[in-house]
Structures are given as C-alpha cells and as structure tokens.
Amino acid sequence: HAQLSEGGGPVSYSANNLEYFDAERRLLLVGDVDIVQNDARLRADRITLFFSESTSGGGEGGGLGSGDISRMIAEGEVYYVRPAQSARGNRAVYEVSQDSVTFSGNVVVASDENVIRGETLVLNIGNRRTVIRPQGGGRVRGVFVPSDNGGQNSGQRPQ
Question: What is the pTM of this model?
Fold first, then answer.
C-alpha cells in the first residue's frame, strides 16, 4: 500500500486537471497538484499515479483509480514535506514495492535548520533512511546547525 507517511492511510489529492487512462490504470494530475496522506504532503506541477490490479475481487475494470497505488511520478517543482524533514527537487519517483521516494535534479533536504544539497536523494519511508548523492564528479554539500547546549558555550571562546 502507498505510504507517503509512516502511518499510511487514505491518500487525498487535488489538481487543476485530471485525466484517467483506464487501459493503463494510470491517473494523470496536472497543475498545482497536492497529495496528502496523514502528516505527509507531496506537491508538484504534474503527478502520475499508477495503480495495481484491484485486490477487492470486484471483477474487470474497477473504475477510476481503483486498486492500490503501485508507483507515483512527480515532475516540475516537486516538494515533499513531513514533520521532521522536507525535500525538494525537479522530479520524484515513489516506488511502493521499495517504500522509497527518489528525488533528482537540484535536490535540497531540510531538517530543522540543517540543509543538504545534492543531485539525487533517496528517502526510505519505513526505516527513515536518507541517502544523498552528488552530481557526477561533484560533492554533496550541507550545513549542520548544532543545538544550543542550555547556554553552555554560548559563543564564548576559551581564554
């Protein structure tokens, strides 16, 4: 089952336009697309959802968007936000079978005040693992902001 958030649950969406391709079991959402599941949100210019065969045993067809989501492809200005982390990039592919979202193209990941930049980001949703890779021959870059130690070392240097 699709899990943009760790808790899973229903997936709601909104977009300027919708087109469903029954034979391909593909739903195309275009224009200011917003997909929400619990505390996670995926926004993009265009998102394509691919559905697996319906597990309800309801026979042939099943209609618009029936069955489980097996894959999502988000394109354009892509933003993924969950409580402890946000990410953005030019493209994101969510593979349900791998429980992961792979971002590519000018990726920026933020957690609190910490920021990491790279070319490719893989978020494994269930086990909360994040992998960032640089662009060919480049380097991953980031800034970590240490937490305040209750007033200790508050900017003073030892004498």
Answer: 0.77
